[in-house]
Please model this.
Amino acid sequence: MRSPFTFTHTAPAAADGKQPALFLLHGMGSHEGDLPQLVSDFKETHHIFSLRGPVVHPPGYAFFTIEEEGKPDRQVFDKILVYIQSFIREAIQEYNLDSERLTVIGFSQGAVLAQALGLTLIPALQGVVALSGYVPEFVKSDYAKQSVEKQQVFISHGDYDYIVPSQWGAESKDYFESLGANVTFKTYTDGHGVTPENQQDLVEFLRTL
Model:
């Protein structure tokens, strides 16, 4: 891979033909080792790529900086989105991935990027998972968007999330539904995190793809 990203990768044992893939994007202050545990059930059937954000943000890393809550630094966000798009396209070629069975999974900041990728990436994503995220206003108003009518979207949020308000998750649900996506929306009596119930619902969603 020519990509500048630091990342982890696991491949399914049976690598005959084109394989589906999951791409994982962590939250602010975390790292590439954070999310793979959520999708360990799919190690035998999917390529799993977990990317590290390039911005140092102790105790870990971030994918982009923010001007204020709900408002990413546009210049950084635009650039990192293009980089991730390039990473996915390169991975399709290098690892012989099935371009019609790609899913991006993000938590918090990663969920913001996952939704932006779902709206813009060509080839189109089959699945988008946004755990405690939102869609920036400039993505809605300024980005060229493709059809998401065949896209499966899983959006979840904690009712007591004081970092990314739960209302933002509901707004993401409404936005993707307005564009014709098939949205599964779940809320939990939790804060800014992923409960065991949330993980179970995520796994069940991924099994339908």
Summary: Residues 74-94 form the longest helix (21 residues). The chain is about 30% helix and 25% strand.
